[in-house]
Prior knowledge:
It is built from 18 helices and 14 strands. With 508 residues, it is an alpha/beta fold. It folds into 3 domains: 149 residues, 3-Layer(aba) Sandwich (Rossmann fold), CATH 3.40.50.2300; 291 residues, pyruvate-formate lyase- activating enzyme; 39 residues, no CATH class.
Amino acid sequence: MFNVVNPSQNAAARASGVYRIAHYLRQNSWDVEVIDFAFSWSLDELKELAKSRVTTNTKFFGFGHMFSDWNDTLESFIIWCKSQWPDLKYISGSSANPVFQTTQFDYYIRGYGEKAILVLLEYLFSNGEKPKFWINTGKKIINAIADYPSYPMEDLGVQYQSRDFIEPWEWLTVEFSRGCMFSCDFCNFPLLGVKEDTSRSAESFKTEMFKNYEELGVTNYIVADETFNDRPSKIKKFADVAESLPFETFYSGFIRPDLLVSRPDDRVDLARMNFRGHFYGIESFNHKSAKVVGKGMKTERLQQGLVDVKNYFKSTGNGLYRGTISLIVGLPDETEETMLRTRDWLIKNWSGENIILFPLTIPVGDLLSKPKMFDYEKYGYSEMNIDNINSQNLIVPAFSLVTDNNKFDIDGLCWQNKDMNLLEAREIMFKYFYTPEFSKAMNWKVGNYEMSSYCYGNKTPEQRMNIDSSLSVAALSMKDDNFKSKQFMFDFAKDNFIETYKRRKLSL
């Protein structure tokens, strides 16, 4: 199974989905090998790998996506595989809505796919019952969320193998629960509005931490939960386990900021757990905009609360903390003026921490699940006519997003509202935020957005210098603050790690 998780290639990170499914299938008598960093493999390398792996016992190729990204190399690879092994099945899956950028998959599983893929494989190879299919564009799609739910589950752990070539310094992914109790209008996460506690057992979490530490030496984790801090009882349960471990672990993941502000006691448990890398889905500091999509805390209270949270974590645990604020450009009533006010606040109050921005995406088409904003006209949006676009003075030219058939090559609607359009939203990002001037004003020491979104873990820069092949060493241990130098070193270390991984895989 191929792990298609990192199309931007800004970081060498592993997602848990494919590994988790592989683990589940292995428990049910399947032998599965995971091929990671699929976007970094050349076509010739993928062919060589496939020739060395496919035997008379091989039944399927699986491609796991974090989102719906694809590229020409993987497209060519599957076409070649089908010419070599036409009887094999080609299966893909993602937590995202199925947006087919390839016609080569035989089956597609949407959502948490453990139980769904086992049902599918039993149907294909063991005369099992036919799965429930949702037919769309000629593809056989399984809606795992509705028909084969893999939640709640007592054990959400992953057992890695030696052939996965995990390095001790890596940030692995860990799951505590599935589903989000909230239903934000713009969001299409697989499980929204889940009111019950679906968290795994404390014992399974403890077992996973011990295995990863004893067998791999790993202590740093990215948390996959949509909202980790949804319930105080859940935080306390896992904080108790983490605090009891005879070794130190660190965690980074999605934290709902309004809950952290309104429930200050939760900070104590998060600190006990060493959950010190926080990704805050703020979406907008314009209260009117945020309220429309379900983020209703008053701006002044939220902003002061974020500063208080930052100061609390920096005053505990040797000051380890990394806070990332995520913003959506283009929500209702968001303007260039409100974004400039946000920029000013970030420079004054969030210096040294991280921010990330996305233009608003409004999905269109025949989807298995639709966010509320799918009914975009209700929110004051309409489709922008390509003939009405003024490309003058755009940092990102409009024509760069237009295909040969005069359509926009974007993931979703090319929208406009009374305040801005999609192109202007992108323009705001690159004009005011993704600039050297803003980086300098924010006092960013590492010129990489992905890197700075994580907590630094349990190693000082000096200690990291002694860790061979660490991606963090190159970026964090350099003595100067030169943006290009640090970015070069980070990319070099990342590429070296991935190339080493590929050589090891090909040598098996």
